[in-house]
Design a protein that fits this description.
Elements: E1 5-11, H1 16-28, E2 32-39, H2 46-52, E3 56-59, H3 70-80, E4 85-88, H4 97-102, E5 107-111, H5 130-142, E6 149-156, E7 166-173, H6 183-188, H7 190-222, H8 240-253
Parallel strand pairs: 1-2, 1-4, 2-3, 4-5
Antiparallel strand pairs: 5-6, 6-7
Helix pairs in contact: 1-7, 5-7, 5-8
């Protein structure tokens, strides 16, 4: 990488990935500087972690700019801080298009489930965050004969949730006690499926950290994010109804 990059990390929660990124970049000194952490809420645990590591933090959300264009104000603020790269790590808000356009090719997101097939049939979209993604994936697997696996995705950010091109994946296998369940059987066994989803989330979390760090290191080496291309589609046409049910029952269960 020829030029130094000033990285802004966006968070909404505990900030475990944010903390891992900062520690790594401070240690390796690869030209990407963890310059700023922006939280969408004052209650995010990641704020204290970033401050402890000596990184400036600020809370910014659209509610603070009711009379202004939040996207434009956010771009202005990032430019004032000389930010050149953005990473969304547990950030739960839709990123304004003004920011996406300003940092095209240099704004990435981590997602805790399989996406990136070039169509809408995947484990992304509205409400597919955190453990919700893992539960939807587990429900889907329990209703099919597919191999039991899931993954974290690092991808470019576009104007809609989880639609950008893939950069890197980190994958795990898991075991289920049953397959080919019908909808009624899923509902009956939902608590068991939730427990498996929670376990998967805990197992995948350190892999999320490793995967986004590897993506940043690759950028530091070559000056861009090399893309990852999936060989197979995630959801076969005959499985689309199962996918939609998996997402629906997941979101219904957390209302």
């Amino acid at each position: 990488m020829k030029n130094k990059e000033n990285l802004a990390i966006f968070i909404s929660g505990g900030g475990s990935t944010c903390e891992a990124i900062i520690k790594h970049l401070q240690q390796v000194n690869n030209g990407i500087e963890p310059t700023l952490v922006i939280s969408s809420t004052t209650e995010a645990g990641g704020i204290a972690k970033a401050k402890f590591l000596g990184v400036e933090t600020v809370v910014m959300n659209s509610a603070l700019f009711k009379k202004c264009n939040f996207g434009k104000e956010l771009v202005k603020f990032l430019q004032e801080k000389e930010i050149t790269m953005v990473s969304l790590n547990g950030y739960l808000k839709l990123m304004p298009v003004e920011v996406i356009n300003q940092y095209k090719g240099k704004i990435i997101n981590q997602h805790p489930g399989p996406i990136g097939t070039g169509d809408e049939y995947n484990f992304g979209g509205k409400g597919m965050i955190g453990e919700n993604v893992h539960l939807a994936r587990v429900i889907f697997s329990s209703m099919t004969e597919e191999n039991d696996w899931t993954e974290v995705n690092i991808h470019h950010v576009e104007a809609e949730f989880d639609t950008g091109k893939l950069i890197k994946i980190g994958k795990i296998d898991f075991e289920l006690p049953f397959h080919n369940l019908n909808q009624e059987e899923v509902i009956k066994n939902l608590q068991v499926l939730k427990e498996i989803a929670h376990e998967n989330q805990q197992r995948l979390l350190p892999i999320e950290h490793e995967t986004v760090i590897k993506a940043l290191d690759e950028y530091a080496n070559v000056g861009y994010f090399p893309l990852y291309f999936r060989k197979d589609i995630l959801i076969k046409p005959e499985q689309r109804d199962i996918l939609e049910f998996s997402k629906k029952i997941t979101l219904d269960s957390v209302k």
